[in-house]
Design brief:
Length: 267
Amino acid sequence: MKLVMTLLVRDEADIVAANIRHHLASGVDHILATDNGSTDGTIEILESFARDGSLTLRHDADDTFDQARITTGMALLAGERFGADWVLSNDADEFWVGPLRETVAATPGNLLFCRRANRIAAREEEWSFAAARHLAIAPKAEARAELLRPIPPKVLVRADNLIRLTQGCHNAEMRDAHPAPAREILIRHFAVRGRAHFIRKATAGGAAYARSTLDPRLGAHWRRWHTEIEAGRLDALYAEVVPSGAEIAAALSEGTLAEDTRLLQIP
């Protein structure tokens, strides 16, 4: 059984090497990565993994946030050229934790839904894996801070059954779909890695969606972030997305968050 991870990245130099090392150590056989116009050293990091044969690097300069096209293309290529039985479609800020190979080997399904949970650092703290130790185990839709709200799952797919992935890889169109939950896997999502990272992410992603001809219902939070930044509300927006230390303490007390001991010190 061959498990290939696809990775779509742009300007993720602070975290992409840790992501790759984690998933190779977790049972991924090969990584098919597409760089989407990085300028921060991400390409050089990917090239270093390509040199040792653990990663194949592609480039796609499309700046309209058409993730579904790129991720579907990579997933199909993973099966056709790299012999993947299963494809894990990933982002650099997502760390899949759990028995990946055992889960796909045992399932009767061909479309596995894997839960995601935000890992959060208080907005007053300097970001690190150790600072972002708070896991949103019981997110609430009505939470004031966006990172405390629920987020959709991601899918693991059988390569030979795949037709296409949806935007964000939260679902997929399959031939004769047999969906199933993958309860043993929980994806730690490091969505916001400090204020400077948030500014770069929100500005670039929001502007790309603003240029895009995709369905305007897609990327709602990116579009809202872009609108808020253009209106000069960056500081207020950051406070609406990332909880304060006091909010984190309250969320820990009520059970929305829990201290997470996994992935605290990834080199």
